[in-house]
Amino acid sequence: MENKDLLYDRVPPLAYLYLNRPDIKNAFTSEMLDSLYRKLQEADLDHEIKVIIIKGKGEAFCAGADIRDMVSGKLRSWGMKKYLTEKVQRIPLLLQQLKKPTIASIDGPAYGGGFDLALACDLRIASQRATFCSTVVRIGLAPGGGAGYFLPRLIGMSKALELLLTGKVLSAEEALKIGLADRVVPVDSLDRETSALAHEIAQWPLPSLVATKKALYHGIKSELEAHLEYMSSQLALLTETKEHKQSVKKIAATIGIPLPDGDL
């Protein structure tokens, strides 16, 4: 049974996932996180989808956990551990494992778990009214949804410590300046600019997009020698794809290089 709090719109070569609780700034429920997990998997396995976009409905990206779950005691002690390990933390783990590039399209607040979700995506495009805040120190907690991993890799350890320890709210322009946001656009242009960025990526062969994303995430965790060895194997595989062969044929024909008989 699908969850109305998470909407899925398949528009090949793009897939849109909408957090749909605009009345409470798209705060998470457990069921919503389950649906997000399933739909991310579905989009990644869809051969017609090249880019996955995550957005919030209304005037917020996501406010994180529903405060009502904290008030009720559901997220206390081992209830919090269970919620994190079984619901929240598997989302950033999955986002890192997805083959397809992901874009967080951020309008309004990206707070708490919403901040973590944005960080876990490959790219972040924000409207001019977007704001970013971890919020955890504000409520006596610590970053448990991935901010402690992603943020220093994006903006450096010192700046990450400053943001997380002060609980500072960042404007879109501040986020752009420190490298947390990749692009900032007018509010009424966010959907159009997000789609344009996604299509700019999706114009290229899917095997190349998948291998390029893998290359960067492998490279950031590897020694240079191991990374180069890994990539030599990846490129050997890519030379056998139809997309590579078609591209080589097209370039050769354009500049007048005769093609050999038979397959490349």
Protein described:
- The protein is α/β, with parallel strands linked by helices and 264 residues long.
- The chain has two domains: 6-202, 2-enoyl-CoA Hydratase, Chain A, domain 1 (Alpha-Beta Complex), CATH 3.90.226.10; 206-255.
- The protein has twelve helices and nine strands.
- Helix 1 packs parallel to helix 4, helix 5 (113-120) packs across helix 6 and helix 10 packs antiparallel against helix 11 (224-238).
- The longest helix has 16 residues, at 30-45.
Task: List the SSEs and their pairings.
Layout: E1 6-11, E2 14-19, H1 30-45, E3 51-56, H2 67-71, H3 78-88, H4 90-97, E4 102-106, E5 109-111, H5 113-120, E6 123-127, E7 131-133, H6 147-155, H7 157-166, E8 170-171, H8 172-178, E9 183-185, H9 190-202, H10 206-221, H11 224-238, H12 242-255
Parallel strand pairs: 2-3, 3-4, 4-6, 5-7, 6-9
Antiparallel strand pairs: 1-2, 7-8
Helix pairs in contact: 1-4, 5-6, 6-7, 10-11
Short structural summary:
The chain has 264 residues and is an alpha/beta fold. The chain is built from twelve helices and nine strands.
Shape: elongated
CATH architecture of the largest domain: Alpha-Beta Complex
CATH topology title of the largest domain: 2-enoyl-CoA Hydratase, Chain A, domain 1
Number of helices: 12
CATH class of the largest domain: Alpha Beta
The structural domain count equals: 2
Strand order of the largest sheet: 1-2-3-4-6-9
Q: Helix- and strand-based class?
A: alpha/beta
Helix/strand order, N-terminal first: EEHEHHHEEHEEHHEHEHHHH
Main beta-sheet annotation: 6 strands, mixed
Strand content: 5-15%
- Low-confidence blocks of residues: none
